[in-house]
Amino acid sequence: MKVEAEVHLAGVGSWLPEAVRTEEAVARGWYDPARRESSGMRAVRVAGAVPAPDMAVWAAETAVRRATASGLTADDYGALLHCATYHQGPDGWSAPHYVLRHTIDRPISAAQIGPGCLGMLVALEAAAHRLVADPSADAVLLTSADNFSAEVVDRWNSSKLFLLADGGAAAVVSRRPGFARLLSIGAASAPVLEELHRAGEQLFPPGITVGRSLNFEERSAFLRRQWEQGAAGPPVHFGEVVAETVGRVVAEAGTEPEKLARICHTGYAEGALYSIYLDPLDLEPDIGTWEFTRDIGHVGAADPFIGLDRLWTRGEVSPGDHVLLLAAGPGMEVACAVLEITAEYDEIAHDTPGEERRQ
């Protein structure tokens, strides 16, 4: 979708806990040394007992503060969209409203958005539609956070594609000019592949209610056994879905893949990064965020915005640059957006002097 209206990012923020080195994980017997070598991962962020919604609040505080440079106040927000890929707190409780209460604290709508790891891009598109349809409010706050430290989750071995990491991210979407303009956004799914994330596991009762772990490797092994016994393999190559979607959205932005300055992508391990993104798009890793995602891990839906926060605040992107936000998730679905950077990061204008942020 080409975004004809004035839709901007007025603020972005992230919060990350301390890193646990993968060499330490190997020494403690948590992580296989061969898998560590093949993954290319150097560290993972681990939050311990810090609740996921609190990490969303801390990221949002930064994004909202930076958005004040665009003249936005708490009364200018019309909605909050919170994304999560894992459990946030008590059943029957609303994490989005907790985040709302502890950030802009206004009597507006707050909702949780999926699906999975592309949630913030889904939320970005929903925010753009809302701003176009409802002129009564100038901004929407997007947040995301996850903590995978629960005992039923083995962050080191749940998938060969990534190491599950903790942290949060936030962004302020606004019709007022900020630091980036949204040029295009879109998604595509291959629902015939939805089985890849449930293979061999029953739908009811939900696994978490009976103490079943989040283990994608078990499901992948189940499918491989089926294929070895003669079952038909996947009828769609997901890399082709990624390539088609990125090509379309980049074209709608009026540019070309080779003209992109940077790509902020999911925090995959090296093999998955190549097979899902780099090889289908015929790109080299230096255009992406691999050099710091390999020290972070996969922070659910937050990954692209953690990357954008890092690139913008460190001056690695400049006005006029086109940046692609890219994520994929269960379904199987891929989403992406093209931004044009419109303003340099100014620490005095966008942040409290001397503020310490853990990155």
What would you say this structure looks like, in words?
The protein is of the alpha/beta class. It is built from eleven helices and eleven strands. The strands form two sheets. A nine-stranded mixed beta sheet has the order 5-4-6-7-1-8-11-10-9, sandwiched between helices. Strand 4 (77-83), helix 4 and strand 5 form a beta-alpha-beta unit. The longest helix has 16 residues, at 52-67. It is globular. The chain starts with 7 loop residues before the first strand and ends in a 9-residue tail after the last helix. Residues 353-359 have low confidence and may be disordered.
Can you summarize this structure?
This protein is α/β, with parallel strands linked by helices and 359 residues long.
Unreliable sequence segments: 353-359
Topology, number of strands: 11
Instruction: State the end-to-end CA separation.
Output: 33 Å
Largest sheet composition: 9 strands, mixed
Q: Output the structural class.
A: alpha/beta
Order of helices and strands: EEHHEHEHEHEEEHHEHHHEEH
Helical content, roughly? Answer: 25-40%
Mean of residue pLDDT values: 94
**Sheet with the most strands: spatial strand order:** 5-4-6-7-1-8-11-10-9
What topology does this entry show?
Layout lengths: L7 E8 L3 E3 H6 L5 H7 L3 E3 L6 H16 L9 E7 L11 H7 L7 E5 L5 H15 L5 E8 L20 E8 L5 E10 L26 H13 L9 H15 L9 E3 L5 H12 L8 H4 L9 H11 L8 E8 L3 E9 L5 H4 L9
Parallel strand pairs: 4-5, 4-6, 9-10
Antiparallel strand pairs: 1-7, 1-8, 2-3, 6-7, 8-11, 10-11
Helix pairs in contact: 3-4, 7-8
Can you give keywords for this protein?
alpha/beta, 31% helix, 359 residues, 11 helices, 11 strands, disordered C terminus, nine-stranded mixed β-sheet, two-stranded antiparallel sheet
